[in-house]
């Protein structure tokens, strides 16, 4: 299949967004072929599996809903709070032969589990777009990627303004919270942790040299981040800034900083 770029994809999909959990579209279909109404809707719909319970999921839903309403699209969302296994099962249904969707967008919890499903879907003529975490080239029609360098400039700019505005007039030590080497739960953003960190530290050195990265720890969720950061603060009492690789870890770090 010829890969498509984002502009072509959105034009072909009429900017529509829908999801595997769409009861109004799929209820009662069973194993039968989708009817003409269902096909008319799904032919211009994109199934989206956001696979994240981190903020700003709710704001993302609002923006998508507003965009879909302007395009006259039907929009619902999947829910993968149960994790990688639940996502794989839902993704298999939404990209199956009976689903009717022509485009599926996925942020994979576990890329190794989604890769073969995505490759099989592409072979059936479904366009697969990934975001958050990459899939193999043979499993991807297009991708929405985050640029580590641009992200680093944005965050380093905020930190520089904070320090220069009185937050840390004499500088401050910085603690890094990295993703675990072996995460107990697959996370779609873990693969981006190290390149983001490298880009951010380079930007901090350039724009806010008074903020010095002195140590690093690892954590995935709020509870283990709170404990890990609390232990680190005992050894590095001058830490005033903690940079975490995801929002859950950042929430735990904030709790540890307040307690200290």
Task: Characterise this structure.
The protein is of the alpha/beta class and 260 residues long. It has 10 helices and 7 strands. A 4-stranded parallel β-sheet has the order 1-2-3-4. A 3-stranded parallel β-sheet has the order 6-5-7, sandwiched between helices. Helix 6 (111-123) links the parallel strand 2 and strand 3. Helix 5 runs parallel beside helix 6 and helix 9 packs across helix 10. The protein is elongated. It starts with 5 loop residues before the first helix and ends with a helix. The model is unreliable at 1-31 (pLDDT under 50).
SSE diagram, text form:
Blueprint: H1 6-12, H2 23-26, H3 36-42, E1 46-49, H4 57-71, H5 84-94, E2 103-106, H6 111-123, E3 127-131, E4 142-144, H7 148-167, E5 172-178, H8 193-207, E6 211-218, H9 222-235, E7 239-244, H10 247-259
Parallel strand pairs: 1-2, 2-3, 3-4, 5-6, 5-7
Helix pairs in contact: 5-6, 7-8, 9-10
Q: Percentage of helical residues?
A: 40-55%
Strand order, sheet with most strands? 1-2-3-4
- SSE run: HHHEHHEHEEHEHEHEH
Helices, by number, come to 10
Terminal CA distance: 56 Å
- Strand tally: 7
Mean pLDDT: 78
Give start-end ranges of low-pLDDT stretches: 1-31
Structural class: alpha/beta
